[in-house]
């Protein structure tokens, strides 16, 4: 009898304790915009990659969260984001009235965006995607990560060498023990002149967005009065031009994206409200806030013909996720601050040299609670996002995306757009693939190799509005500019500032001399001998190339003259006495002495 009981206990223990274990090289947890891009890039770089997503869709905020009007990065679309954007525009191109202007904001129905992302991932070799697979835990086992998820209601153990946390709230980083901060940073901490004197725990509001459909003038799609409905919460909309608000939120197929500020569907939270133990209650209240807005729109504002579309298969037809604008930020190998955006070339660290993606988004300031500091940002330039911002400092082989990027609060609002996250995610995927391919850890990253992989896959490092991806000299300009030898020029326009390369402008000696001298020991001798003037002439450039490459000056000049229009396809005449243009300098420098080959560390410092 005792033997039978022991046998039964043993069998029960084996049954309850069993969990399937699988292995992969790179595991991406979270199928949001950044996570999908990271997984695609890692797999396209030839690395076995697994992507797990807790919900039924890929795309995160852009699809499951309903944020399907994306104005950011439309002038800087590259890599995987340009691919996604192209598929969306091609899908809607036959629809009457769809804006196919080259740099129009990207507009789509959430379900369409999710379907297109799934279609892209289905065609990528080395990539496995698991939907409806929530994350539960993570721990270290030697050099590997051991992650547990729930797959079809059963625990699934995944062993991976590199993990990318692409969850919207940064849950993986938190569970792994990464140091996290939230809210406004103090000025003493970040040294940002615009930061408030004291830190606070206040973060940007979350919003349950809503997709409404016009069911016709005579339709009545009024929803039941939501629990706790209070019409005074939405009273400021009485003075608003509702038709104008709706006109700015048009989606295809007679739908509208409701994402209204002030007394709309924003819901104030702190980082504590978004902790796992508080999340369900917080989200329930935020849903009621949005349902109340819809009811007010239908009843008090007379828009009963507008009803909730059935894009989302939820009981109330609101999105699967709230739109989370901000949460806890991880401590990374570097922390990006405002000065890295406004004055990237004038800092001791040169984070632009380590860029893995670009952005032209404005920082959001979405707060419905009183007393939150309003930041008077000067015109906000397009900028580069550094590699070190996605690499955790506390834990090797753990990368972070979405709201957990290592940036300050004042930068955070400019990096959370789905368009920006796809761009950053592609860079993170290239970094993860680098670690696997070269058998390195995240403490041993080679910035230039990772950037080369990003460029190979049509990504962008520097946010030049005047050098398109299709420009024949795009890569040469990107690589030389990533050294800082030729610097971008900020051109303010309203609240924003474009960054221009100005390819037809003359090269100034004062701009290129410092780095040329730092990179090449022979340069000091050459500058002392040649003494170039204020502008750097073609003669100067060819003479410098001859000095560095030890090529005969006359033979080099003749070779360049012969191939000036046929090989290089320069439109300017070959005249050695005139100033070199920035385009000419970038192309010839990249070809003959390749400053991009000089290694830099995670802070952008040149490595001997």
From TrEMBL:
<keyword id="KW-0004">4Fe-4S</keyword>
<keyword id="KW-0411">Iron-sulfur</keyword>
<protein>
    <submittedName>
        <fullName>FAD-dependent oxidoreductase</fullName>
    </submittedName>
</protein>
<keyword id="KW-0408">Iron</keyword>
<dbReference type="InterPro" id="IPR039650">
    <property type="entry name" value="HdrA-like"/>
</dbReference>
<dbReference type="InterPro" id="IPR036188">
    <property type="entry name" value="FAD/NAD-bd_sf"/>
</dbReference>
<keyword id="KW-0732">Signal</keyword>
<keyword id="KW-0560">Oxidoreductase</keyword>
<feature type="signal peptide">
    <location>
        <begin position="1"/>
        <end position="19"/>
    </location>
</feature>
<dbReference type="Pfam" id="PF12831">
    <property type="entry name" value="FAD_oxidored"/>
</dbReference>
<keyword id="KW-0479">Metal-binding</keyword>
